[in-house]
Structures are given as C-alpha cells and as structure tokens.
From TrEMBL:
Organism in which the protein naturally occurs: Planotetraspora phitsanulokensis
Sequence intervals crossing the membrane: 20-41, 53-71, 91-115, 127-145, 184-205, 217-240, 260-283, 295-314, 341-365
UniProt entry tagged with the keyword Cell membrane: yes
Regions annotated as coiled coil: none
Official protein name in the record: Cytochrome ubiquinol oxidase subunit I
Cellular component GO terms, alphabetical: cytochrome complex; plasma membrane
Length: 395
C-alpha cells in the first residue's frame, strides 16, 4: 500500500469503529426517553426500572463513544490538512456548529439527567432526556450536512484555489442530505431495537425472575426494530435516484458493490423477518414464551451493526478518488510530506485505541445486561445524607 491507501484505510477502520457507537446512541436515546416519560406519567415503578436499566447501557455507550469521536477529529489535522485548506471554510462550518452547539448541549443535558435522579422535579428530569435525544439528532444532522457536502459540494464557489461558502441554505437542502439523514436515524432505531430485543431474549431464555420486565422490553425492541427497519429500507431505496444524478459511478467499484449487496440483503431479510415473523408473535406474548427462538434473536443482534458499516462503506468508498466530489481528490487532500512510517504508526495507534474502546464498550454493556435490572447504579437513591444510626445505651 502507498501512503494514500494507508491513510484511506486508517480513516475507514477508525470511522467504522466510531460509527458502531453512534448508531447505537441514536437508537437507544429515544427509547430511554419514552420509557422515562411513561414512568413520569404513570408512576409505575416498572417503567422507572426499565428507564434506569436501558439508560445505563445508553450512558456506557455514549461515554466511550466520545473518545472515538476525538480520535476522528485528530485525523483531519494529521492526515488531511489539504481538505482544511481547500474546503475548510465550508466543510468546517457544520462541524463547528455540531461541536459547539449540539455536542456540548447534549453532554450538558445528559449530565443533568444522570445526576438529576431524585433531585430534579419529575417533569424537568424527563425534559432533560428528551433534550439529550433532540441534541443527539441535531448532532447527527450537522455531521450529515458536512458529509453530504463532501458527496455533493453545493452552496460554494472556488476562489483563489479554495472553496468559499456562498449559500448556507443550499447546504441544508443538499439532495444528498434529504434522504440520507432519515436513513441514518432509522438505522439507529433499527439497531437500538435489536439490542433491546437480543438482551431481553437472553434473560427470557435463562428463565429470569424479571419476566415481566423483559417481556415488555422484548415487545419494545421488536416494535422499534420493525419501525426502524421499515424506514431504513425505504429511505435507502429513495437515495438511488439522488445518487444516480450526483454520483452515477458510485456503485461500480468492487467494494461498494459488495457492501451494497450485503447491506440490502441484511436489511431486506431482517425487515421482512421482523414484520412477518416476530411482530405477529407479540400477540399473547408468544415470542416471550417460545424459548427456542431466543437464541436466534441473540445471534442476529449484531446484524444491524454489520449493515450499518456496509452502508457507510458504500457512501464513503463509492465516491473515490474524490474527497470533495469532483473538486478535491483524496491524494490532493493528504497532508504534504506525510511519510509512510508516520501513517503506519498513527494507524496502529488509532486503530488500537478505538478497537480497545469498542471491546471495553461491548464488555461493559454485556456485563450490565448479564447483571440485569437488579444491579443498576444509575438513578440509585443517594444514601450519604441519611442519618447515621446511633448505638443504643443501657440505662
């Protein structure tokens, strides 16, 4: 591999690992918000326990995902300074908004939600998790605005050898954004639904004492997976016309074609499987009672993640050799003078860190799932202020 291929591979590996965190965050956030809303409205302790259990899994994934995002930011300055010089005035604007507004607000509201249990009024506490969800989706919006510009550089003109922003509104109405954003958000719901479904199946297969808890969670997971897969597939096919108009050769390469086939196959099989098999089995809780199906649900849990990575590869690799399509090639976007040894060193370091974070994320989530709702630290009452019992004194 030459320097360009190494840098491309590095970004593909780290980008794929980061996307694993993102897609689960987008899926779990609204589910936790809905569970918390049901608890706030009904006061049912079961809904509170569901909020705390699935919320803890969301927090684990979010916390570790932050570090993978920071690694992605380092790569822009290290390997792709040519992109910043040529298109930074345009490409950097939505990224700056995402960081300064969406990400910081999301982190702030999440902190208030985490530490607001038994401290904030119930309505205000619920509002915090909904604001977390909205800012998470706002973050996804601005990231997709930036990415869609790379796919189809609208709203800019070239002056003095660099792109200058002329129409900010064109960035927000980019045809490569219109269907891609709901496609990504739906994929998140699909993924979140499968994680909830697979974890619930694990406990039901083990004949857990928390049967009602995981029967309800299983139902939520299946319904969410159905809605997510339905819209993922629908908005995925809706993008074909846009891609044909803006990047007619996108699917000609070997990797894009293979990844596209994998994504479509998984998407259609799972979508029809959920719709025609799992959804009807929610009647009279047949799916919760049929233990022989639970190992199958656990085995297919990773498939939405695989489909998501395949879709990312189609979108990113399919525009090669361009980084800004039709404007800036990948080779020209590379940092001048970057050596092969430097790329290999950073590749090993970045991939190692992200791979380790992904492994830790999986182990922590698996541990939280295995321990069940009876051992959740999120939302536990603070006993530090309780009066210390005094020893009895004999008279």
């Amino acid at each position: 591999m030459d320097v360009v291929d190494l840098a491309r591979t590095q970004f593909a590996v780290t980008g794929s690992l980061h996307f694993l965190f993102v897609v689960l965050t987008l899926g779990l956030a609204p589910l936790v918000a809905i569970m918390h809303t049901r608890y706030a409205v009904t006061g049912n302790p079961l809904h509170e326990r569901m909020t705390r259990f699935w919320g803890q899994i969301y927090v684990i994934n979010y916390a570790l995902g932050i570090f993978t995002g920071l690694v992605m930011e380092f790569q822009f300055g290290l390997s792709w300074s040519g992109l910043s010089r040529y298109a930074g005035d345009v490409f950097g604007a939505p990224l700056a908004i995402e960081t300064l507004v969406a990400f910081f607000l999301e982190s702030t509201f999440l902190g208030l939600w985490i530490f607001g249990w038994h401290r904030l009024p119930r309505g205000l506490h619920v509002t915090c998790i909904w604001l977390v969800t909205l800012t998470a989706y706002a973050s996804a919006f601005w990231i997709m605005v930036a990415n869609s510009f790379l796919q189809h550089p609208v709203g800019s003109v070239e002056q003095g050898g660099r792109l200058v922003l002329r129409d900010f509104g064109a960035l927000l109405t980019n045809p490569n954004l219109v269907f891609a954003l709901p496609h990504v958000i739906s994929a998140g719901l699909w993924t979140g639904g499968f994680v909830v479904m697979g974890a619930s199946a694990y406990h039901l297969f083990r004949r857990t004492a928390e049967r009602e808890f995981f029967t309800r969670s299983l139902r939520i997971g299946v319904v969410t997976a159905f809605i997510g897969s339905l819209f993922t597939v629908g908005f995925g096919y809706a993008q074909f016309g846009v891609v044909e108009d803006t990047q007619p050769d996108k699917f000609d390469g070997v990797i894009p074609g293979t990844a596209l086939g994998l994504m479509i196959t998984i998407g259609q099989l799972l979508q029809f499987g959920v719709m025609l098999v799992l959804l009807p089995l929610l009647i009279k809780d047949l799916l919760a009672r049929w233990r022989w199906l639970h190992p199958v649900l656990m085995l297919i849990t990773p498939l939405p993640f695989v489909a998501a990575i395949a879709g990312w590869l189609v979108r990113e690799v399919g525009r090669q050799p361009w980084l800004v399509y039709g404007k800036l090639s990948v080779a020209d976007a590379m940092t001048p003078g970057l050596s092969k040894a430097a790329i290999i060193g950073s590749f090993v370091g970045f991939a190692g860190v992200l791979g380790l974070l992904a492994l830790i994320d999986y182990l922590l989530i698996a541990r939280a799932v295995r321990r069940g709702p009876g051992q959740v630290s999120l939302g536990m009452p603070d006993r530090s202020a309780d009066p210390v019992p005094q020893p009895a004194h004999s008279l």
